[in-house]
Structure formats: C-alpha cells, structure tokens
Amino acid sequence: MAALSTSPTSVSFLAAYDTAWEAPADADAKKPTPLEEESGAITLKEFVDALPPLIRRQKEEAGKSPDEASRQGDARGTNDDPVHVLFSRIDLTAGEWKKYALFDSQKNYTRNLIATDNETFTLLLLCWNAGKESPIHDHPCDGCWLRVCEGKVRETRYKMNGVTDKMDVTYDEVYEDDAPAFIKDSMGYHKVGNPSKTVPAVTLHLYCPPFDQCRIWLDKNHASRPSKACMCNYSEYSVKHTCEMFEVISI
Predict the structure, then answer these.
(1) For the segment 239-250, what is each residue's pLDDT rounded down to a tens digit?
(2) Where are the beta strands (DSSP E) in the chain?
C-alpha cells in the first residue's frame, strides 16, 4: 500500500476502505488509466488511486521535452489539464467528505487532511466558520485547486506593487458551486474566506506537490515584508490534532 500518512501513527486514508493499493507496473504508469479516459463522477478513493501515477507520468513527459513542460505549465488549471479534469470529477456529496469535516469554533477555519503520498499531492478539507478568512499567502508548488463542498467562499487575489509596496487586489470572486478554481504563484497570491455571517462553509483543496511552509502577508500595505509560516493540520484522516493553522516562524 502506498504510504499516505504524515503522522507518526501512519494512519492511512485507504484503510477506511479495507482495500489494498498496488503501484502500477512501469509500462502501465506511462499511459492513461481507464479511469482517466472515462467521464462521470468518481469517489475520493478513486481520485487518490489515480492521481499519483498521472502526476508522475506528466513529470516524466515534461522532463523529456521543454516544449511539453511549457505546454503543461500553460494548461495547468484548465480543462486541458488531466489533473484539473480528474479533480473536477470527484463526487462532492456529503457522504464522501463529511467524516473529515471537523470544525472548531475557536479558529477561523480548520485544515483537515484527507490524503497525501508525501510526494505528488496533498488533499485537504477546509472547514470555514462564518465570517472568517485565511491570511494572504503564496503556494510554493505547481498549483492549488479548490472546490466548494458546502456553503460559499470568497477568493481575493493580489499582486505585489513594487512602487507602493502594497498588495493590490486583482480579482475578487464568490464561489457557490463546485466548479474547480485554480491558482499558482505566477497568477498572484490570495486569501480565501467565508463571506456568510451565519452559515459555515466547506471546501476541498488539492496541492501538487505537498509543501509544509509558505509565505503569508499579515499587512497588505507592506508587500515586501511577508512572514514565513509553517502549516499544521487540525486533523489527519479524521483524527484531531492540536495546532495553529499558520504558525508564524519568522517575520
């Protein structure tokens, strides 16, 4: 079984399904799986099974050709990106994600780990209390995908202004359906929050590859002075942890 835990207890996402996971043979890993060639909704387990070989195949192809690497970069987060398409097919009915939805009234939101292989991806369920938001932050990875499972969220994107040293807003949108949103650092930095004053929200996030530190901006009027933060999961595989969401380790 693939190692899917970052916790000392090595709890596996797939253990909940009582199903063994086998790595594909090298030859099979180089071609699309039947699941990728299909359409229609897929379960979280099917997504977690299919994603790592897909990403490894993309990396191998990109490593052989600068043109292919450029094409993949341009397609990332669009319907020409197999990762984006696969993520968009996850069944977001409550039965698929509800057991990972751990809220805490004392926090703005919680980061709840669903699955990771510590190499190609991290899949998180974020639970947002009413009227709360994240700090502005970057994504030191190939990109971040987001889908709304319940409620609605607001994404605000920023670019650094080298003249004023401020973070200028470039995009501000409220998401209420489950269509994927995508961001990478070349598109700017962002914060996400729950615009409702009364109703909580739940979102599904995919990060490829995983990372455990990022930059955050505690003051949008000082773009040149980000803080370095270490992310911590509130829960892993439905097991609660004790930590702060963004622990600032330097300013």
Answers:
(1) 997 665 555 444
(2) 109-116, 122-128, 136-137, 143-150, 153-161, 166-175, 181-183, 189-193, 201-208, 213-217, 227-231, 235-236, 239-240, 246-250
